[in-house]
Amino acid sequence: MLITAAIIGAVIGGVSYVAINLYNGTAITWGGLTKSILVGAVSGAATAGIGQIAQSATTAIFGTFKSATLNWLALAVTKGLMHGVAQGFIQGVSGGNAGQSFLTAMATSIAGDAFGAIGGYADTVVGHSLFGTVAGGVTSRLQGGNFWEGAAIGLTVGLLNHAGSKLYPAIDRLLNGNQNKTILEIVYQRINETENSTTGTYYIEGTDVKGYFLEPSGPSTTQSNQDKRIPAGKYYLKINSGKKYGLKIYNSDVPQSRAILIHIGNYPSDTVGCLLPGKTLGVDFVGNSGTALKDIMSAYYTLNNSQVELRLKVIDIKK
């Protein structure tokens, strides 16, 4: 993923250099073009890397809140600061304006997270890319800087981080297909059901990650807005870029639009169809949900690549 991001960043850097010089009527040199391509490659790799470590950094700095909105805000702020520091440093050492780049990247990242939370077209590769480009350019211009230099930073952040969960799997499928992929699963065995919830155990194949899930009580349904659990079966997983950090669960019967997630929570009141992970289990309760989700997300980032795909398998209560 980092190599892919570096290549895309290099392209962005090279194209933006040519475009800015043509717009300003200044000469295009091989030295300047090479420098822009190298800076773009480093910037792209750094941006993608931040996407991989942001959740762990957020948990280390802020801990885990009971409110999903506060968890989302903490993650957005952490990502914004990390992007700001990375872009400020990279642009600074390459002769650019470090302070301006810091503010442009930070503001674009936080605004991009809020934009993506709208859902629909906003939460697509094109949506994130366009918004990041415009937001970066406008932020840079408001500081008295060059619109197109800010646009390049915004495009890098929007495309390679906010849209990353959709972009990188699509590139993997295009280049490698799914024929030779090894499928590993989060295997979830439902064990108990009360009037308020369904609970069970899970483990992730190929790792030592395990814990408990809590979800709504039955009967299972594929319909939205029922506050009921999903049917047993096999599901695809992808990063959710909305306000609730976690993994989106979907298949041909349970569409992505139903927004069933694996996300932080402890009680039945914290879920409307979603799976809440935990390290401890009680009656209608799972504990240490933040730690459990962190372990699941780390496994997802570690395992998911061009050779391996992580999915979810839900097994009904044995009767």
What does this structure look like?
By secondary structure, this protein is an alpha+beta fold. It has eight helices and ten strands. It has helices spanning 2-24, 30-62, 68-93, 98-116, 125-142, 147-162, 164-176, 289-303, and strands spanning 182-193, 197-204, 210-216, 233-240, 246-250, 260-263, 276-278, 280-282, 285-287, 308-315. The strands form two sheets. Strands 6-5-4-10-1-2-3-7 form an eight-stranded mixed β-sheet, with helices on one face. It has a two-stranded antiparallel sheet with strand order 8-9. Helix 2 (30-62) crosses helix 6 and helix 2 runs antiparallel to helix 8 (289-303). The protein is elongated.
Topology:
Blueprint: H1 2-24, H2 30-62, H3 68-93, H4 98-116, H5 125-142, H6 147-162, H7 164-176, E1 182-193, E2 197-204, E3 210-216, E4 233-240, E5 246-250, E6 260-263, E7 276-278, E8 280-282, E9 285-287, H8 289-303, E10 308-315
Parallel strand pairs: 1-10
Antiparallel strand pairs: 1-2, 2-3, 3-7, 4-5, 4-10, 5-6, 8-9
